[in-house]
Amino acid sequence: AKHAGVVQMASILPARRARGPNEPGGIKFGLFSDIIQANRKYPKDAPRASLEVVGSGVMLFDQIWLGSYMSGGVGFTRYATAAYTDNILDEYTYYGMDYVKDKYGYDFTKPGDNMVKPTQDIVNDIVTEVSLNAMEQYEQFPTLMEDHFGGSQRAGVIAAASGLSTSIPTG
Fold it and tell me: Which domains does the chain have, with CATH numbers?
């Protein structure tokens, strides 16, 4: 705690959410991404680097920080594990990357080259394709539904896969 007080990485939170200075919830997402440094380990694999940040973020923000004061009961923090267990989010994200490569010619192994222009139509197209694929997978494999047992888990994973599949190729 004394080291966190010296570094002061987190911003001040709104009074209704803050419990003390330097709360984890005040860490900016960009700074958090720099802390994880997954892009150094996976420089040619933006989806993998992004998935590492998502997994770490879910653990810190949802399970530790939010779970510590919002839960009110057992099970709240369990929903967040869907983002970093079983490689399901990975599968959906890489499906999105394959879709973008086939349809728009973007290759995530060559970051910065031929980025996709982020128009609303293109964003809608990518998000729709990734979301429909994920929902079809949940229907096709009953054990997948058992693993992500609640709608919040499935919605969170689908949203993360759609967001990553859209943000990586569009910059």
Answer: 1-36 (no CATH), 45-170 (1.20.840.10)
